[in-house]
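Handout, section B. The chain below has 129 residues.
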Amino acid sequence: MRLNKKTDYCLRVLIYLQKRGGKSKIQDIADCYGVSKNHLSVAVNRLSELGYILSNQGPKGGIEFNPQLAGVSVARLVTEIEAFEVAECFEVEGESCSLNSHCKFKKILVGATNSFIEELDRYQIKDLV
């Protein structure tokens, strides 16, 4: 299983902010990881929407980790960001695959995905640092 870049960047931002403490600039985080500020901004916006980070505008502004969400499971964060359509048959809602009556692969993939999520559920955001 592989997380998409947005999820990866979200996790990196949270790790950085927890480790550093206080406010940070997106450019500083982008420089630290050697990634695009624009791509990182998308992740930061999503984290802000979900309440994982607090954002302040202006010259003394920046972003910081919301400590109230330190106890949230990594699984919750990942499932709020990531789409887990690991096969094409997961993606089409309401349409039936011609192999459904014979295929057991989808059930296997659902089980694998659930195991992945269960493993992530063992850890909290604060455990990432």
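Note. Residues 33 and 52 are 19 Å apart (CA to CA). Compare this with the example in section A.
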